[in-house]
Amino acid sequence: MPVLNIRAILAGLLVDLVGSFAAWLVVLTAYASMLLGQGVSEAELETILSDPSQLGDIILVLMCAGILFDGFAGYVTARMSPRVEYWNVLALVGLLCLMHFSANRGEGVELAYQTPALIGGIVAAFIGGGLAKRRRRPLE
Questions:
Q1: Dist. CA 84–CA 123, nearest whole Å
Q2: Is the pTM of this model over 0.85?
Q3: Distance (Å, rounded) from C-alpha 47 to C-alpha 41?
Q4: Among 128, 120, 117, residue whose Cα is nearest residue 88
Q5: Fewer CB atoms inside 10 A, N or C side of the chain?
């Protein structure tokens, strides 16, 4: 069994959580400002933001931002790992999947959005890990 670098995994996890939360905050703030500018009342805005099925295309933007930060987290994890980069990224992905499932518990966003977000996040994390591993290779 390869030795995992816990610091690298936790750093990637922190990058993913903080980045995804910041992107979520920026996108939803911009969306709420746009709706208020169009004349939507604050009561209607609260109703729209509290029901994920009414968000429409904003869910896709949030999903893409989350996938982007999953890839960046994979890059950070692999870059900080002295060896076995993909194993460290796999541990990161496992923790992210565990957090994803425990946070959603069947509430909120539909499975049709959760599944592509999860698969895209896993693929992005490994692509980020691959980019970090390729960058580490000496130039010939």
A1: 18
A2: no
A3: 10
A4: 128
A5: C
